[in-house]
TrEMBL record:
InterPro entries: AAA+_ATPase (IPR003593), ABC_transporter-like_ATP-bd (IPR003439), P-loop_NTPase (IPR027417). GO terms for molecular function: ATP binding; ATP hydrolysis activity. Belongs to the ABC transporter superfamily. Gene3D superfamilies: P-loop containing nucleotide triphosphate hydrolases. This is ATP-binding cassette domain-containing protein. Residues 2-227 form the ABC transporter domain. Keywords: ATP-binding, Nucleotide-binding, Transport.
Amino acid sequence: MIEARELTKRYGDRTVVDRLSFSVRPGEVTGFLGPNGAGKSTTMRMIIGLDAPTGGSVTVAGRSYARHAAPLHEVGSLLEAKSVHPGRTAVAHLLALAHTHGIPRRRVDEVIDLAGLGSVAGKRVGAFSLGMGQRLGIAAALLGDPAIVMLDEPVNGLDPEGVLWVRNLLRGLADEGRAVMLSSHLMSETALIADHLVIIGRGRLLADTSVDEFTRQASGGGVRVVTPDAMRLRALLAAPEVTISSSSAEELLVSGRDAREIGIVAAQHGVPLYELTPQAVSLEAAFMELTRDAVEYQSAPADADRKAA
Ligand SMILES: Nc1ncnc2c1ncn2[C@@H]1O[C@H](COP(=O)(O)OP(=O)(O)OP(=O)(O)O)[C@@H](O)[C@H]1O
């Protein structure tokens, strides 16, 4: 379990993490989301003691990271700018890490297998592709068989097979009862991996919710109905909680009734339907809507679109 309470980080007069409170629970994958510059890496650095909070606190399994006798067994982490000596082979890198933490050679072989690095374990890390580097970073994070796994943008640079591998790996780790946290700025990708979402913008908490709930809210875009009997269907569907708009004689946009309910009413009254389409807002669109005031560098056309909308 990771618990942040009112966690705050200021650089000079800039507050980059602002009274952030959230939990990363065992048995779940928590997606830590925010646009570029939202404060995700800074938060993760504070979790593992690489940065000191200006205010508030964050604990890992009940105490601050620095107070664990064997922190590598407690939290395995992959932070973006992890430096690995380019002249070292992957296996030498992992062995050196294992050695300094009293981890047996057997475990090095296990994580090499787990990360699919068997065929390149003897290669120098300097010659690794970005994806291979990510796999090595993940292997290193798992070396201590940690109860908590924290990965900063783990799918960055991975090809589709690599993305699927990360997804399955993290799911498996959570199913074993570990607390898994991954950061990303990609909503739709995260929704496929995570159970729980912590979304931040400009250092502040914007949402702390389940993926299911976020998806449910994002899909509340109404139902488009096309029928030659639009006037009659509109009257049949009328209720205080239902709103209906129309942009042409045969088309209705209905909110407050789902497609199934509309279909049943139409069938009961013999109203023919040409089209019945739930208007799902994409998860990415819902995420952009939530974070749009927190985006650090907004491109001019996107801004113009927003004003026009
Ligand atoms: N050492 C530092 N000194 C001053 N400002 C910093 C420092 N580290 C980070 N920042 C600023 O803090 C803000 C948050 O940065 P951070 O890297 O935590 O964001 P992020 O959400 O991880 O972004 P990204 O998705 O781009 O990696 C940024 O505006 C960044 O410029």
